Amino acid sequence: MTGSAAAPRFAIMTAFTLSDGRSLDLRLSGGEGSPALVYHHGTPSSGLLSRSVEQAALARGLRVVSWSRPGYSDSTRHPGRTVASVVDDAVEVLDALGIVTAVTTGWSGGGPHTIACGALRPDRFRAVGVIAGVAPYSESQGSLAWLDGMGQENLDEFGATLLGESPLRTLLEVGLPTYQAIQADEIVDAMATLLPDVDRAYCTDEFGDYLATSFREAVSVGVDGWVDDDLAFAAPWGFDLGAVSVPVSVWQGSDDLMVPFAHGRWLADAIPGARAHLLEGEGHLSVVVGRIGDILDELL
């Protein structure tokens, strides 16, 4: 399927109200009635999509549905949320939009949330694509050296996560001013230990501008969303990966310093029938920018 090259950029609905009174920063692109793609953003980030991801989706005739997870940007915080908590929010969004079923993908910290949708509501989410997605900490104990292979910034961040909310919040708030004002040309310095050469090449031009904008949006109200994401990754996710019944593809680069290669291998082994795309030479950024067309084609 192909779509119009002139399809609109995201329209933002900043006050989509959920049944519990919380609001989500909801973003939509593409025509009503088109097959839907629900996209889950990374950590920290917002519901804003990069142009490369959006255009690849629109070119395949997809309607893109995305939002900032609770605590990010204009989305109300949901204290104590688990990875599984995203599913009820996602179903409410689909119901409000009149969407019966969708495919779903998530990048980085969005990976666990996209798996949750397929695991817990296979009637609504018919296929899942995990892009450089983090593996569960709790469920992988004894079978995955979860921290091995991460750059120093992530070692510090997740080391604090395992100590609890207060140490994690203290750490993230130290870097908050940097991320609230970050520009594209500052990303490499700010994330130096997390970016292999293959990823540094994507921190300029349009994708660098997207990353900087998404970081600024994400933490514009503080670090709540970031804290809650990290705590959710380390806690039990709230579903059995071995019971996932919908088709799942796992895309992971060997040079990733944010979510190590071993996380992708572990997820591919843990999810029944998962299609593993374990890619030599790809990083955390390059895999989503360079492979998004292939990822969406497999979802469809």
What would you say this structure looks like, in words?
By secondary structure, the protein is of the alpha/beta class. The chain has one domain (11-299): Rossmann fold. Helix content is 39%, strand content 16%. The chain contains eleven helices and eight strands. It has helices at residues 51-59, 86-97, 110-120, 152-161, 165-181, 187-190, 197-200, 205-218, 224-234, 261-270, 286-299; strands at residues 11-17, 23-29, 36-40, 63-67, 102-107, 125-131, 248-253, 275-279. It has an eight-stranded mixed beta sheet, sandwiched between helices. Helix 4 (152-161) crosses helix 5 (165-181) and helix 5 (165-181) crosses helix 9 (224-234). It is globular. The model is unreliable at 1-9 (pLDDT under 50).
What layout of secondary structure does this protein have?
Layout (H helix, E strand, L loop, with lengths): L10 E7 L5 E7 L6 E5 L10 H9 L3 E5 L18 H12 L4 E6 L2 H11 L4 E7 L20 H10 L3 H17 L5 H4 L6 H4 L4 H14 L5 H11 L13 E6 L7 H10 L4 E5 L6 H14 L1
Parallel strand pairs: 3-4, 3-5, 5-6, 6-7, 7-8
Antiparallel strand pairs: 1-2, 2-4
Helix pairs in contact: 1-11, 4-5, 5-9
